[in-house]
Amino acid sequence: MTEAAEIRPARALVFSNLAHYYNHVIMLLFPTVALVLESEWGLSFGALLQLAFWGYLAYGLAALPAGWLGDRWSTRGMLAVYMLGTGTVTFLTGFARSPLEMAVGLTAMGLFASIYHPVGTSFIVRHAVNRGRALGANGVFGTVGVATAALIAGTLTDGWGWRMAFIVPGLVCFATGIVFLLFTDAEGNQTAAKKHNAAASTFDRHQVIRAFTILAVTMTCAGFIAQGFLVGLPKIFSERVALAGFEGITGTSSLVTLALLVGASGQLLGGRLAEHFSIKYVYLFMYVLMIPFAVASAYLVGAPLVVAAASFQLVLASSLPAENCLVARFCPEGWHARAYGAKFVLALGVASLAVPITGLIRDYTGGFFWFFLALAGCAAMVVCFALFLPQAGPEAVSKSEAAISLAGPAE
Question: What domains sit in the chain, N to C, each tagged with a CATH number?
């Protein structure tokens, strides 16, 4: 039954977490399906990734208007549009008969999927009492989606053909949207968000502008790293990892899933660290760790490459709760969805150029050596810029500051 008044916080978090899981599964189905379409459609890996480019571009650029609508209209309404719309177009993409139809379907998927990150992250921030931990838990669902996308796509493709890799997830996402509408009603309680944002008033306008200028650069670089790594990994493992029992598309996708699942714990680790240590330095530390893992991956093959890739994903995932907390810390009240929308325009939209670039590096160099060195360079750039962020303490400290701010100054 629907709620008579507000969405229960726990229920809100459950639906937002499921929506995050679906988001990453759906947006990463195609890189695995592309391994089959290379032979079926006679296109190179680079050419196939170019079909997906417009979808990834829409996935990022449409995040800003989606965030604006979430702030001005309803985060619940926008989450419903996301689940129903994404489910429908993913289902229909399973019937694509040509590269052009596939490109149109992938673009529509990216357009509807773009709604989740600004609106869903804002939804978490508004409902969560323990924001760093809640963002970490939400991130786990996203990371598990990233990890299992290859396995889901590979299993469905091997068992029933590549079309089912789109049809089945599309139906599941649509059905969840129906349940979401039936079991939620009005917008949830935003008290927690107001308490957190009281702490943001300790930063003056100059510091806020400085922080968001620096974050614009670091989040774009982080987006290049994440998108390139995730779309390239199935092809990387298919070429550079040959392990007994992991042959064919199902075996490759299983290894991709195994490596990326390690990153799921990274979201929880990052959330915990953001609660107890400076979020600026948690963010910095993860990108410092990322550099040697990227460089090592440029040289490794076989099982050592799987370990290095898993470690790379672990630190990449660990950086995300701190990054989201930094955005929230410097964001004015009532601007959360728009702030996250702007973040994902950069991290998913501008950085979607990483998708065709990954394919071009593979096609022109015949491998992924320079690809991994490029990832290391992007991580180094994040470190250089993040050093100049204003000081931002742990999330636990921000909650204490917020309580003092809400109590008002002594007069």
Answer: 9-394 (1.20.1250.20)
Question: Which residues are CB-contacts of 185 (< 8 A; sequence separation ≥ 6)?
Answer: 2, 3, 4, 5, 6, 7
What's the Cα-to-Cα distance from 4 to each of 75, 77, 364, rounded to whole Å?
18, 16, 59
Whether this prediction's pTM lies above 0.70 is answered by yes
Cα distance between residue 9 and residue 48, in whole Å: 42
> How far is the C-alpha of 70 from the C-alpha of 55, rounded, in Å?
21
Place of tokens 């599941």: 172
Amino acid identity at 31: P
Look at 197 and 359; give whichever has higher pLDDT: 359
184 close to 7: Cβ distance less than 8 angstroms:
yes
Residue 128 has a pLDDT of 63
Give the tens place of pLDDT for each residue, 120-136: 877 777 766 666 667 77
SS3 of residue 306 by DSSP: helix
| Closest CA relative to residue 252, chosen from 243, 261, 260 | 243
Return the structure tokens found at 197.
């944002």
